[in-house]
Amino acid sequence: YNVQIEETEVSPEQKIIQQTADSLYIINSFAQKFFTETLFTSDEGQDIGLSYLKERGFREDILRKFQIGYNPEARDTFTKAALANQFNVELLQKSGLVVLRDEKPADNYRGRIIFPVHNQSGKIAGFGARLIRKNDRAPKYINTPENDIYVKSKILYGSYFARQAIDKADECLLVEGYTDVVSLHQAGIENVVASGGTSLTPDQLRLVKKYTNNLTIIYDGDSAGIKAALRGMDLALEESLNVKLVLI
Length: 248
Prior knowledge:
Elements (H helix, E strand, L loop, with lengths): L11 H30 L1 H13 L4 H6 L3 E3 L5 H8 L4 H7 L2 E4 L2 E4 L4 E7 L5 E8 L9 E3 L15 H11 L2 E4 L2 H9 L5 E3 L7 H8 L4 E6 L3 H16 L3 E6 L1
Parallel strand pairs: 7-8, 7-9, 9-10
Antiparallel strand pairs: 1-4, 2-3, 4-5, 5-6
């Protein structure tokens, strides 16, 4: 047989989009390693970040599993490290890791615990950054802005680590936040994901459906939690999932 294979033409615009996506993944991987190393090896990381996490009851092995880290309080510790490694400042801004303050690049997640958000293949698409010290003006959490690789409505936190457990249990537990996922994993319950940084979306529920038709929503029992749980239940039913609701 004479088989001819036609090559698909890739437009210049598509090439640029792919190059940008590849660069953002590389930047995020560098950032994760920097933040994790800072948490476990720097004095500030250990005294502030690690001590806070251990007070919350997290073990070191589970923190390493989820590649959790810490961004120092100083203005531009991460930014300096990234620029020293020849990363492009515009792409660093696009990643959400760096912002311009007084027209100078600076760390966006200063003094925060860093939760890397992995996509389905295990690559880091973005971050959730939690404030440790009380600051009435600053939001408790900052999440990566939407970019070429991070679309928050299409990502479930913890899904990369939960896939096999969801498939095995034929059930997915849906919780509200990053620490809920990490806590349950530490307790040996691994079929768990969180919508993290956004209200539950149909795209996230379709991700769940790839592994199971059974969803259990576990939210806080306060008024906001009940409202979110009922909304999530309606969306899940629209996606033809079998839904259970647990209010803590």
